[in-house]
Amino acid sequence: MYKWVIIGGGIQGCTVASYLLHSKKADTPSLKVIDPHEDPLHRWKTLTRRVGMKYLRSTSVHHLDPDPHSLRKFSKKEEYAQPFLGSYDRPRLDLFNDYHEGLFQRYEWNDFWMQATVTDLEKKTDGWEINTDGRSISAERVVLAIGVNNRPHLPEWADLSDKRMGHLFSSDEVKISGSLVIVGGGISAAHLANTYAMDGEKEVTLLKRHPFRIKDFDSDPGWLGPKYMNDFHKVTCYEKRREMIKAARHRGSITNGLSVKLKRHEREGRLKIITDQIEEAAYVKELIHLSLKENDGIKAQTVLLATGADQCVPGMEWLEGVIHSCALRTAPCGFPVVDAHLEWGPGLYVAGALAELEIGPSARNIAGARRAAERIAAI
């Protein structure tokens, strides 16, 4: 029986593992991380590569290592050129990834990584049994660190069976050919538009429903500390907490730096930016015809959706049965009601989106991962 099993090997799960190992609450033989992919942070690396991200939105102190200054120390030791960007010290993506490759090697990550898909979770007298598509393992404690970026949100008019249309979050990467329309107004869409406009080889259009929402971060930094979180925790009604989270999140926002780049591409003729709504799509011969609410329709050889993930509770395809069988408490929105240590049931903990009714609006990002990992490692 393992002491800890973490379900999910993305940013959230890997941060929890790092904190448990650093604090000596776990070691290599007593820990298991289960993820459908072969390597840690696979989904993170795939999506950031797809959009062409160069620098993160978060700051230099937000990463997976408990020492907040370790990324900066690493950048100096390895002599990275321009390792951080702007007044917020946003780290280079390759620096961020390289640092964590070293971190994983230092903790002998391969020894406790398990590539599998979890299908069920059962409470036992002495812990939990985790069932996967290949085998079952037992653990004293389980951490659910499941994300939603494998569940793309599709507009009603979208048809991904047509190979000329794809979604950023789909498992299959769409082959970009000819004129390209990118649909979305958030930071992923902005990165995509910047990447393909810089390439200069295609006719690129960014089609968004709303004007650019310029925000430095996806929620105000005050949500990372007592400035806002003290009042958040005074609220005992989980419906009100959900309302506070929705109001605090800057969904569909982009940084000022990306906005400047996109507007420059537009001025120089490398990018067309349209603010409108798509009413329907027609798939005619080699082109996709998009009908717009206010403007003339547009045609493209490829349509790439950057419309985010479905608004759902992560892992519900198998978690629903666990909730009922173990009488786990949920809020009206369906998300877990947990204690201050993020414990949902005896020996069952959550991180990421599943922890947001306790961690607050930052729960899904890297800073939120650190806060969740701190609480879990402190038990």
UniProtKB/TrEMBL annotation:
Transmembrane segments: none annotated. Pfam families: NAD_binding_9. InterPro entries: FAD/NAD-bd_sf (IPR036188), HpyO/CreE_NAD-binding (IPR038732). Residues 5-148 form the FAD-dependent urate hydroxylase HpyO/Asp monooxygenase CreE-like FAD/NAD(P)-binding domain. It comes from Halobacillus trueperi. This is FAD-dependent urate hydroxylase HpyO/Asp monooxygenase CreE-like FAD/NAD(P)-binding domain-containing protein.
